[in-house]
Amino acid sequence: MKFKKTIGWEVRLANFVHDRKANAFEWSTSNCATFCADAIVEMTGVDPAESFREELSKVTDTASAYKLLKKHGTETLEEFAEKHFKKLPVAFAQKGDILMYPPSGAFGMEGFALCMGIEAFVPGDIGLGSLQTLDAKAAYRIE
Fold first, then answer.
1. Would you say the pTM of this structure is higher than 0.85?
2. For residue 137, which of 107, 111, 108 has the smallest C-alpha distance?
3. In terms of C-beta density within 10 A (0-12 exposed, 13-18 middle, 19 or more buried), how is residue 70 classed?
4. 8 Å CB contact between 66 and 107
5. What is the full per-residue pLDDT of the chain (143 aa) written as tens digits?
6. Which residue, 58, 108, 113, 134, has most beta carbons within 10 Å?
C-alpha cells in the first residue's frame, strides 16, 4: 500500500493531534495502532488498517492484539510495520512518520507513536502521552 501525503497534511495532522489530546488509551478504540492509522488517514486519505479495522475494534488486551497480528501474517508490530512501511534511521524521522518503541509498561509489547518532531505522541492513561523521538527503536516514513 502506498501512502502519499496530500496538500495541507501539516494542518490536518496538527488538528488531529489537538482533537485527540484528551483521548486516553482504550484497547478497542484508542490504542497505538488505531491512533497512528487514523493519523495516516489524515495525512494521506489512505487507511492502512482498512482491511482489518473492524477486527481492531475487538482487541481487548495484549493477547488479542498478538492474535490479530498473527492472523495477518506477522508476529509483532515491528514485523507488521516493516511489511507495510519504509524503514529509516530514527535520527531521520520527521513530523508525520511512525515510530516504534520497545516493550514497556503494563502492556509488555512494543508500540507505535506518531512523530511530531522531537516528541512523539501515543494514547496514554489520561490522554495523549509524549515520548522522545530519539528514544524510538525504529522509524517508518510516511511520504
1. yes
2. 111
3. exposed
4. no
5. 678 999 999 999 999 999 999 999 999 899 999 999 999 999 999 999 998 889 988 999 988 988 999 998 999 889 999 998 999 999 999 999 999 999 876 556 789 999 999 999 999 989 999 999 999 999 999 99
6. 113
All structural domains of the chain: 9-141 (3.90.1720.10)
Of the candidates 31, 38, 48, 36, which has an alpha carbon nearest to the alpha carbon of residue 123? 31
Residue 58 DSSP class: T
**DSSP summary character for residue 88:** E
d(CA 56, CA 16): 20
Side-chain-side CA neighbours of 65 within 13 Å: the count stands at: 21
3-state SS, residue 63: helix
Contact 52, 65 (CB under 8 A): no
Cβ–Cβ < 8 Å for 112, 102: no
